[in-house]
Structures are given as C-alpha cells and as structure tokens.
C-alpha cells in the first residue's frame, strides 16, 4: 500500500548545553564535608555556578582577552576566596610531606598559573594535594628533598607524554572502589601521623609505629600544641555551620584563630619557618641515587597518582556547573607541564584538587582567570607578608590535615560501594595503602577488582527444579565458560535417570569447554532413556555450536520471543527430543496452560511490582477500540503495559451510534470518558479485516453476524461515496478496495463516537481527542488516519518530524 507523506517541518538548529558527566568516581585529595555525588545526576550547584559556566561559550566569537576581561568582575573575588583557602592547605601539606614549607607555596603558585593557563578544565584549581602526601614523605625519606624534586619533574614529563598520546580518558577506567579506597587509606595515614604533631610530638615513619606510639602521645603533656590543635579542629568543624561568617573559608578562619591564640598567650611551640632570602629557599632538583627500577617506579607512582586524582577531580568539578565539559587529555598535558615546572623549581608535585575547585565554582568563577589570579595572589602574599606566615603554629596546620584526612574516609562512599558489592575492593585497597604503601595498595585493589569482575562475568547461576511427573526444569543464567563446568556437571548428574528434562539457557556466552561438557551429558542422558529439551531464551549459542557454527563474541541480551511470537513459534521447543523413539515422546500440553505456567514461573515476578501499584484502581489514559482479530495485539503495537489501555474489541472495530441501542460498546465509552477520564479514544482498523470482507462480499452466514455488521453499513456508504475519486499511490496503482473500506470504516466510527453526549462534550471542552489508526499486518506498520481526508501518515515519519 502506498500512502502520501506529510511534509516534514524544518528543524531549527540550536546549541544545547553539553550533557553532564556521568562517571561515577568523585575523588578528592582534600575532601570537605560536602560529599560529591557518586551517581549520574543533573547539576545542582548554586545559580552562580550555572552562570559561571555559561560564559565559556562565546570565547570563539569575542576573543579570549575580551572574554576574560568581561568576566573579571566575577573571577577577581572568587580568586581571592581560593587564595585564602590555598595558603593554609599548601603549608600544611608541605609540613606533612617533610618538604620545605616554601615548596608548598611555590607549588601552589605554579599549579595556579601554569595548569590554570593550559588546563582543559578551566574551573579546576591545581596545587599541592593531600593525596600525594604519603608518597612524597616516603620519597623524601628515601632519596632526600632535592632528588624528590627531580622525581617530580620526571613525573611531569611522563604526564606530558601521556597527555600528548591521548590516553587521559583511560584513567577513568580505574574502579571507583579503588580510587575511594586509595584516598581513604591516604586519609587514614595522614590523620594518624599529623595527630602526633597536633599533640606536640613527631610522627614515625610507618602507620603501625604511629599507632603503637599514639597512646603514649595522648597521655603526654603537650599543653600548648594540643590547645592550638583543639582550637583549629573545633573551628574547622563548627565554622561551616555559621551562616553569618561562612563566606570566609573554614581553613583560613581556623588557622587565623589558632595563630591569634598562640600569639596572645605567647605560647612556646613550633611555628612556620621560612628562609630570610626567599630565592635561597628554592631547591635545585637532583638525580636520585638508587636502583633504576626503584626510581622508575617512583616516577610512575607520582605520575599515576597525580594523573588519576587530577582527571577524576576534573570530572567531579564538571558536575558542579553546566558549562563545557573538561578536555581530559589537555588537562593531563597541563598537569604535566605544572609538575615539570614545580619539580624544576624545587616544589611539591601538584594535582587538581576538589576543596579549592569547589570553592572556586561556588564563589562564582567564570573563566580560568580566577585560577591564574589565585596563584599570583599567593606569590604576592609570600613576598610581602612573610612575617605573618611565620607566626602560624605547625600544630594548627597539622590539625587542618587531620580533619582533611578523616574526611577522606567517607562513610557515604562505603555505603554506596556496599550496595554495589564493591566493598571488598575498597577494603583491600584501604588496608594495602595503610599497611604497605600507596602503589602496592592500589595494585592489590586493582587485582581484587579484576578478580571480582572476572567472577561476575563468568559466574553461572544454576537452578534445578523437580516437578514430579512433569520432569525436571534446569535454568542456566550467565556465561557458560570452563570455570563453571565442574559445578554444571555436578548439578546435571544429580538428575535421576529416565526423566523428562527441560533445560532453559539464558546465556550470553558459551565457550567450547562448557558446550562440550553439556552436550556430552545430554547425549549420554538420552542414550540411557531420558528426554532432554534445550530451550535457548536470549540467544542460540548451543544451537549454533551443535551445527558447527559457534559464535566467538559475547552477545547482548535480546528480547525473548515469548513477548511477541505466537505460541506455535516457541512452544514447539517443548516437544520430544528427536533422538527419542516415537513411543517415548512427550505429548505437548495445552498451549493456554503452558502459557499460564510460563507467566507464573517466569514473568509474574517481573510484572508483579507494577500490578501491585495498580491493584487498588486503574488509571488508563486511552480507550483503545479495535477489532477482535487475533493478529492485532494492542499492547504490542503501542508498546504499552498493564494499566495503560482501556480496550474494547469486537468484530470490525465498530462503534454503533448512540441511538442504535447497543449497550455493550456504549457502556464502555461512557465508563471510559465519564469515570476513568481518558484523554484519548483510538479507533484502530487493520488490513485484511474479515468483517470488512463480509461487508464488501454480501451478508455473512449467521444471524448474529448479520445483525452486528449492520452497524458497518454507514462505512460502506462512505466508501462508495469516496470511490468516485479512488486513492492512488506513487506508482499510479489504485489502492485496493478492501483497504480503502477499512480506512473509511475507521473514519465512520470516529463520527459515531461524536453521537455520544459525553464524548461530544469532552471534545468541545478540549479534554478528549479522537484518533484514527490503521495497522498493516503484513508490514507491521502503524498509520494515523487524517480525520478530514482519510490519508494515512506513517507513525515513523511523524515521530521523526
């Protein structure tokens, strides 16, 4: 059948905001009380964060410099906020790493200016990160500070190579459980070691030693250091809850208060010590003295940890605004350049970090200028206010690191990973980092994650059910590979001899070992008098293997034919095995009973939650009136389910006029409109309609059919009136009379519906729409019927226009 096409409207092209990132990992080397989402979500940052991102679009049209200047009134105040957060954190991280304090400030400057200018994530702030504290402290202890600076520079070169070769996105394949376990382990190490400094002591070189000495440290008398540390920790915890002063960053307020307390009471305790000549504080990097493999591993460790933290932090920052997404490879190049510069100048390694970045976004930053300016403010602060920095107690900086370390151990992440059955990976990584070192801990976590994924990919669920006289039912789900063969054969051998066995294969992969084991069992079982029927539900792995056409690639789950195929197509699988003699073949059960059994055993659990919601009342939106023809399945062609359609089916999809006295259809129409409040009534005709054949060919046999089809006489009259101008297709052929009558019948039933007062009133009020539809069975296509012309419009074309 050829049908006219409606002209397609020209779409207006518009630029939409890019989608938000959906990566589930949300790392942080400086976790705050704000927890980042671990599931895909729409941006929920404050409105000024949304405004900040919208300014990134016009750069190509206005030029970079005018764009930066136009947004300077937003970036300038936000850069000051980030600067105030960065100073105490940089000093604390340097102290915890065993590096010169000047190195922390230097790296903050380099990270802000270099990574800020080159980075692919404009609002990501780069600087010294708590996540690298343990790594740097270990390197300083092994090779000294100058050699550690050389390792940092080499790690920067490696990051540059990784970025240039465009492997930045590969870092996102690392399991979030490993990342969170690594950060939690680092947080625990930092918190335990820095707690000694808060108490006025010195940390040991290992976590176990710090834990061993901690009780003695707690009962010791370190009044001044403990007082300053306690003031800092209390303010860090309380300050964000004070709305009046929350505009001032909590780390800055806590360190400032601790410094004032120490100065007012003239407390004698260690403080920040900077060189008189700042340039003399710069350390020239040196080549490490040690085994080449150990040095290479150190470079790789710094580069890997810094890269993963930076890239995942960039993704996390993407969730805080709705602007352009981060260019991860470009960001990796920028991080490499920043670490190369930081190492060459004698600074700490840097990464993109969350605390400073979230402060940047929430303060209203719009461009990368905020990140660059924050680095310049730190440089100016160091040059002009050295005396003020030297008043800060080291125990205050250590207290900041204790709170950061504790927050890295996130209970929210633990609960999420427990629900996703990834907690074992988290625990192994955490313990590995705490008890050994960061690289070994990560490798252990990755190993457990791989083993867990391998188990899940190759795990097969085997369920055996004894149905008594009806035989056995074996259900296999998952991937059938050699790892499952032992358990599979064990379960199959438990089935008694001579039974009728139905084996359902819900598998997405079957290797040769699994096929051979199962096939040999089946042949042997049938030789001993049993009957084995193999039913493949999602794919045909077994069938292809038995015919010498085994598949090599894993298949995706497919729709079971039970959802749409006739009984005759899938119930033949329940017949007897071809290998069994005729007298032993099992008689097929009644199709209806078998279908009911399939529903009860397989599909009822899936649909039960939806039916439970509908148990109290139905809320359909459509009255779907169609023919009783068995080939027309309303829920199939409309992709609907329970509770969606209020259906009326009869011979010829007829709607007698309201004054014709047919109570059955009239009652359904009134109930649907007046009680259920449907918003649409669909009249659906179809091709090869037997009722319309009878109307064209003369009176059908049977008094009831003859009486019913009298309601189709107005459709026949309409058809003959339209026959004066028969519809033709693009090839000039006339549309068959039967199909034209089916379409005319749909239009006539829509007119009959308007004879019902409730329908007519609802249409006039705009509460109800009447829709004509035509289903072509042979092509499985649905058309909408134009109520004025009777022309057919393919639904596929309407959906695409």
From TrEMBL:
Span of domain SLC26A/SulP transporter: 72-428
Keyword Lyase: yes
Reaction(s) catalysed by this chain's protein: hydrogencarbonate + H(+) = CO2 + H2O
Major site of localization recorded for this protein: membrane
Protein localization: Membrane
E.C. no: 4.2.1.1
SUPFAM superfamilies attached to this UniProt entry: beta-carbonic anhydrase, cab (SSF53056)
A Pfam family this chain is assigned to: Pro_CA
Topology in the lipid bilayer: Multi-pass membrane protein
Residues that span the membrane, as ranges: 76-96, 103-125, 145-165, 177-199, 219-239, 246-267, 294-317, 371-389, 396-418, 424-455
Taxonomy, superkingdom: Bacteria
Enzyme class, first EC level, given as a word: lyase
Keyword annotations of the record: Lyase, Membrane, Transmembrane, Transmembrane helix, Zinc
Residue ranges of the region described as Disordered: 1-56
Skewed-composition ranges (Low complexity): 16-56
Function: Catalyzes the reversible hydration of carbon dioxide to form bicarbonate.
Family: Belongs to the beta-class carbonic anhydrase family.
Protein name: carbonic anhydrase
């Amino acid at each position: 059948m050829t049908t006219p096409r409606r002209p397609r409207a020209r779409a207006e092209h518009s630029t939409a905001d890019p989608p938000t990132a959906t990566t589930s990992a949300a790392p942080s080397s400086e976790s705050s009380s704000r927890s980042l989402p671990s599931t895909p979500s729409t941006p929920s940052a404050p409105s000024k964060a949304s405004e900040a991102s919208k300014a990134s679009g016009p750069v190509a049209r206005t030029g970079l410099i005018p764009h930066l200047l136009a947004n300077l009134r937003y970036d300038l105040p936000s850069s000051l906020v980030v600067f105030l957060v960065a100073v105490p954190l940089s000093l604390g991280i340097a102290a915890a790493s065993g590096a010169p304090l000047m190195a922390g400030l230097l790296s903050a400057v380099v990270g802000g200016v270099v990574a800020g200018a080159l980075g692919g994530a404009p609002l990501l702030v780069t600087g010294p990160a708590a996540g690298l504290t343990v790594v740097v402290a270990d390197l300083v202890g092994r090779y000294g500070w100058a050699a550690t600076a050389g390792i940092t520079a080499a790690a920067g070169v490696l990051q540059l190579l990784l970025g240039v070769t465009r492997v930045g996105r590969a870092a996102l394949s690392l399991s979030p459980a490993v990342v969170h376990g690594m950060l939690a382990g680092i947080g625990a190490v930092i918190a335990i070691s820095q707690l000694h400094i808060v108490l006025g002591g010195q940390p040991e070189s290992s976590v176990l030693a710090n834990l061993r000495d901690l009780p003695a440290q707690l009962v010791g008398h370190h009044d001044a250091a403990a007082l300053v540390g306690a003031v800092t920790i209390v303010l860090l915890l309380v300050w964000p809850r004070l709305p009046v002063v929350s505009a001032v960053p909590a780390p800055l307020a806590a360190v400032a208060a601790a410094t004032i307390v120490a100065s007012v009471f003239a407390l004698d305790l260690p403080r920040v010590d900077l060189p008189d000549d700042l340039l003399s504080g710069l350390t020239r990097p040196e080549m490490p003295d040690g085994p080449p493999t150990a040095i290479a591993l150190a470079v790789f460790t710094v580069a890997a940890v810094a890269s993963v933290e930076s890239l995942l932090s960039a993704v996390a920052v993407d969730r805080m605004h709705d602007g352009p997404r981060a260019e991860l490879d470009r960001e990796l190049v920028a991080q490499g350049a920043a670490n190369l510069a930081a190492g060459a100048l004698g600074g700490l390694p840097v990464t993109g970090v969350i605390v400073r970045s979230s402060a940047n976004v929430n303060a209203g930053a719009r461009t990368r200028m905020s990140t660059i300016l924050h680095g310049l403010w730190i440089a100016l602060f160091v040059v002009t206010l050295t005396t003020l920095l030297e008043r800060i107690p080291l125990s205050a900086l250590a207290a900041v690191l204790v709170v950061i370390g504790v927050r890295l151990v996130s209970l929210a992440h633990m609960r999420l990973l427990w629900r996703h059955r990834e907690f074992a990976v988290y625990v192994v990584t955490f313990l590995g980092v705490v008890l050994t070192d960061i690289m070994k801990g990560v490798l252990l976590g990755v190993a457990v994650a791989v083993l867990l994924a391998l188990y899940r990919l190759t795990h097969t669920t085997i369920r055996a059910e004894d149905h008594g006289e009806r035989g056995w039912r074996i259900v296999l789900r998952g991937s059938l590979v050699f790892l499952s063969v032992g358990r599979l054969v064990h379960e199959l051998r438990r089935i008694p001899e001579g039974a009728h066995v139905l084996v359902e294969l819900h598998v997405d992969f079957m290797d040769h070992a699994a096929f051979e084991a199962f096939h040999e069992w089946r042949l042997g079982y049938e030789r001993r008098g049993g009957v084995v029927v193999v039913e493949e539900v999602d794919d045909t792995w077994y069938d292809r293997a038995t015919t010498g056409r085994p598949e090599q690639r894993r298949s995706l789950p497919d729709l079971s034919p039970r959802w749409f195929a006739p009984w005759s197509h899938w119930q033949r699988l329940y017949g007897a095995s071809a290998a069994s003699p005729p007298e032993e073949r099992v008689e097929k059960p009644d199709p209806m009973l078998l279908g009911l059994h399939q529903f009860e055993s397989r599909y009822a659990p899936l649909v039960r939650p939806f039916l439970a919601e509908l148990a109290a009342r139905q809320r359909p939106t459509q009255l779907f009136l169609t023919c009783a023809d068995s080939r027309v399945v309303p829920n199939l062609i409309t992709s609907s389910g329970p509770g969606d359609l209020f259906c009326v089916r009869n011979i010829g999809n007829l709607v007698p006029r309201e004054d014709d006295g047919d109570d059955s259809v009239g009652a359904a129409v009134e109930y649907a409109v007046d009680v259920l409040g449907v918003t649409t009534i669909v009249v659906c005709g179809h091709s090869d309609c037997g009722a319309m054949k009878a109307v064209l060919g003369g009176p059908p046999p049977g008094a009831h059919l003859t009486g019913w089809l009298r309601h189709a006489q107005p459709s026949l009259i309409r058809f003959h009136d339209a026959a004066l101008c028969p519809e033709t297709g693009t090839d000039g052929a006339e549309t068959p009379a039967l199909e034209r009558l089916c379409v005319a019948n749909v239009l006539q039933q829509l007119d009959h519906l308007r004879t019902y007062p409730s329908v007519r009133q609802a249409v006039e009020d705009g509460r109800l729409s009447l829709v004509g539809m035509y289903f072509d069975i042979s092509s499985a296509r649905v058309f909408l019927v134009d109520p004025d012309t009777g022309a057919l419009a393919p639904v596929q074309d309407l959906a695409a226009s």
